[in-house]
Design brief:
This protein has about 240 residues and is of the alpha+beta class. The chain has one domain. It is about 45% helix and about 15% strand. The protein contains nine helices and four strands. A four-stranded antiparallel beta sheet has the order 1-4-3-2, sandwiched between helices. The longest helix has 23 residues. It is globular, with a radius of gyration of 18 Å. The site of heme C has 24 residues, from helix 7, helix 9 and strand 4. Heme C binds next to helix 7, helix 9 and strand 4.
Length: about 240
C-alpha cells in the first residue's frame, strides 16, 4: 500500500541526483515529505471541490464537517497514493500523516462558524488559506513544517525563506513534474527539505490572472499570471532522526 509512496520518493531521489540536488536526501524522511505534500494537495483539492458550497450566501448550515471532509480527503488521498489516511501505521511515516490529517480536521472544525455563516459569499476560506492553517496547526503538534510559498506571496506567512527563494527561482521555466529534495544541516541538525511547484490553471485566473493590479473577490491585487505559469510551491521540512 505504501509501496507507491516509497516508489514515488525513490523516483524523486533519482531525479534529484541527476538534476538539481547535490546531496542525496534521506530516503525515509523524503518519503514522509512526499506523502505530506500529496496530503496537502488532496486537502486543497477537497476544499476547491466544496468552494461554491462554502461561498453560498443563501445557505446557513453547509454540512461540511470534519467527518465529511475526512470521507472526501480519504478518497482523494487514496487516489493519489493508494494509502488510506484513516488507517495509518504506528511508525514515523504513519504518525506524520495522521498528524497532518488531525490538523486539517481541527482546522475544518474550528472554521465551522465561518463556513456556516449566512448572508456572506466569499469568506476567505479557500484552498491556499486552508493550506496555510493546516501548516500552522501541524506546527503545534510536530517538528515537521509544511507551507505554501511564492515569489509573489499574498499572505506574509507564505513568504519564502532564502532557501525557498533559490529553489523557486530554479523552478521557473522548468518541467511541470519537477521537484527538489535535499538533505541539509541547519544549526547542527539534519533535515530533509522538499519542494514541489504549483502551477496556474484556468480556475485560478479569476483571482491571480489579468489585469494585474486590479482587485479580486478576496480584496487582493491580481498578479497577472497566465495559464501554466509557476505560481509557487509547497515546501516541506522534515527533521532527520
Ligand atoms: C477566489 C480567489 C482565488 C482563487 C480562485 C485562487 N486563489 Fe490562490 N490565493 C487567493 C488568496 C486570497 C490567497 C491568500 C490566502 C492566504 O494565505 O490568506 C491565495 C494564495 C495562494 C497561494 C499562496 C501563496 C501566496 O500568494 O500567499 C498559492 C500557492 C495559490 N494561491 C495558488 C492558487 C492556485 C494554484 C489557484 C488555482 C488552482 C488559486 N490559487 C486560485 C485567492 C484565490
Amino acid at each position: 500500500m505504501l509501496f507507491r509512496i516509497v516508489a514515488v520518493a525513490l523516483i524523486v531521489i533519482v531525479g534529484s541526483i541527476i538534476s538539481v540536488s547535490s546531496l542525496r536526501a534521506s530516503e525515509k524522511e523524503e518519503s514522509v515529505a512526499v506523502a505530506l505534500t500529496e496530503y496537502l494537495l488532496s486537502a486543497r483539492a477537497v476544499l476547491a471541490t466544496n468552494q461554491s458550497l462554502i461561498n453560498d450566501p443563501d445557505k446557513g448550515n453547509k454540512g461540511f464537517t470534519a467527518d465529511v471532509y475526512e470521507q472526501q480527503v480519504r478518497l482523494e488521498f487514496l487516489r493519489r497514493t493508494s494509502a488510506d489516511i484513516t488507517k495509518m501505521a504506528d511508525d514515523a511515516f504513519g504518525k506524520a500523516l495522521s498528524e497532518i490529517h488531525q490538523s486539517a480536521k481541527q482546522v475544518i472544525t474550528e472554521a465551522q462558524p465561518l463556513i456556516n455563516q449566512e448572508g456572506k459569499g466569499f469568506k476567505g476560506f479557500n484552498p491556499a488559506a486552508f493550506g496555510a492553517k493546516v501548516g500552522a496547526a501541524l506546527e503545534k503538534r510536530s517538528d515537521i513544517r509544511i507551507k505554501q510559498t511564492s515569489l509573489k506571496f499574498r499572505g506574509a506567512y507564505n513568504k519564502p525563506d532564502e532557501y525557498e527563494t533559490t529553489i523557486l527561482a530554479k523552478f521557473v521555466g522548468g518541467n511541470k513534474d519537477q521537484s527538489h529534495s535535499e538533505e541539509l544541516t541547519v544549526d547542527g541538525k539534519k533535515v530533509v527539505r522538499y519542494m514541489v511547484p504549483i502551477y496556474i490553471s484556468k480556475a485560478c485566473l479569476g483571482c491571480h490572472g489579468d489585469p494585474a493590479g486590479t482587485v479580486d473577490v478576496s480584496g487582493h491585487k491580481k498578479e497577472g499570471y497566465r495559464d501554466g505559469d509557476l505560481r509557487g510551491a509547497i515546501s516541506v521540512i522534515v527533521p532527520v532522526l
